[in-house]
Design goal:
Layout (H helix, E strand, L loop, with lengths): L1 H10 L2 E6 L5 H16 L3 E5 L29 E5 L11 H5 L3 E6 L10 E4 L6 H11 L6 H14 L10 H12 L4 H10 L3 H12 L2 E3 L4 E6 L1 H7 L10 H5 L6 E10 L8 E10 L5 H7 L3 E2 L3 E9 H13 L2 H4 L3
Parallel strand pairs: 1-2, 1-3, 3-4, 4-5, 7-8
Antiparallel strand pairs: 6-7, 8-9, 9-11, 10-11
Helix pairs in contact: 2-4, 2-5, 4-5, 5-6, 8-9
The structure holds adenosine monophosphate and manganese (II) ion (2 copies).
The site of one manganese (II) ion has 6 residues, from loops.
Length: about 325
């Protein structure tokens, strides 16, 4: 597959590079490194993401070149879609992106549905940024410090700083090489994990307080409502990572974070709202299967989905589904 992608990229002249909505470090790292690499190969490049770039990633070079407006990118002959298990993950631009002549899908989610004309999907890769690193080597790209910082950030964040189950030898080897090229781990860590706004700390307080435990202690549910976000003056990106507190609780095998994106659910449990649900597992349960039931996807130990529902229904469905999983409902 790599050969076909290399050919397609070599043939491309104007490339639109995109990654998933509400981008994480890997979505941004793979987007920037790919965009910069293709530029260095003399291609016309247009970098696109539907959502604002979270403040913690704005230290990366060229991040301001990522556009939220598709219009300029519209005479591209090729699109490279990164870190997306399905095309829907790019957001509202999907129909327009589908019209681009050659679509290349580069990803590491087990639930990847194989969209596009060419796919480079490797479930074993710790991050899409790892695949991009390998692709850059094949394309004989001269990796410069901005590309190196983007790749490093993608791998660092998707492996939870080399702690999650996707952490592999390549994560260390590539990051080591990026550090040798001049990436400063302390500088990156300070930006990505260093400072929390007071609002985020207050949100953390409300989030921790919302945790409920179900299924004999094996399922934890954290709920973030719009009311909490308003009260603390926080943005959706401030919820990133909060689910890890729910997952780390003793005995918990599956943690869910229900994040209300808009609507009025907090005004009462029966109102319908749009929610994003993040799922994490300690490794015993494949949460990508739970996400798939709701039309989402992800990895075995980290997955998610979006849904319109009332908060009460959503919680009830999650609890019911978790209760049917042998590892969770099994005799203990
Ligand atoms: P999150 O829920 O944002 O913490 O994401 C956890 C993992 O699941 C990431 O690898 C995401 O790319 C993936 N994921 C999140 N939401 C969706 C969705 N709606 N569809 C498919 N994959 C998703
Ligand atoms: Mn991602
Ligand atoms: Mn990823």
């Amino acid at each position: 597959m790599m050969d076909k992608i290399i050919k397609a990229i070599n043939a491309a002249q104007a490339v639109l590079v995109a990654s998933h909505v509400n981008p994480d470090g890997d979505a941004i790292g793979s987007l920037l490194s790919t965009g910069l690499a293709l530029k260095s190969l003399g291609k016309k490049v247009f970098m696109y993401n539907e959502s604002p770039i979270p403040a913690v990633y704005r230290f990366l070079d060229s991040v301001n070149e990522i556009s939220r407006d598709l219009d300029e990118g519209f005479d591209c002959d090729t699109a490279v879609i990164l870190d997306c298990g399905s095309m829907e993950r790019v957001g509202q631009a999907i129909q327009r992106l589908k019209k681009i002549k050659t679509l290349i899908n580069i990803d590491h989610h087990v639930t990847n549905d194989g969209f596009g004309d060419f796919h480079l999907v490797d479930y074993e890769a710790c991050a899409t940024s790892e695949i991009i690193y390998r692709l850059m080597k094949q394309l004989e790209v001269d990796i410069d410090p901005p590309m190196a910082a983007a790749i490093y950030t993608g791998i660092l964040t998707d492996t939870g700083s080399f702690r999650f189950s996707n952490t592999n030898a390549a994560a260390f080897a590539i990051c080591n090489e990026m550090v040798e090229m001049g990436v400063d781990p302390y500088m990156v860590a300070r930006h990505v994990y260093g400072t929390y706004s007071l609002g985020r700390i207050k949100l953390l307080n409300l989030a921790l307080d919302s945790i409920e435990i179900w299924c004999n202690g094996k399922l934890s549910i954290m709920t973030l409502t719009q009311e909490m976000m308003k009260k603390t003056g926080t943005q959706p990106e401030d919820a990133d990572g909060l689910i890890n507190y729910a997952r780390r609780i003793e005995d918990v095998q599956v943690a869910a974070m229900i994040h209300e994106l808009d609507g009025v659910a907090s005004a009462g449990n029966d109102f319908k709202s749009k929610f994003h649900v993040s799922l994490r597992s300690d490794g015993a349960v494949d949460v990508s299967q739970i996400a798939a039931v709701f039309g989402g996807g992800g990895h075995e130990s980290a997955a998610g989905f979006s849904i319109e529902s009332s908060l009460a229904d959503l919680k009830a469905r999650l609890i019911e589904l978790a209760g049917k999983i042998p590892e969770i409902c099994g005799v203990n």
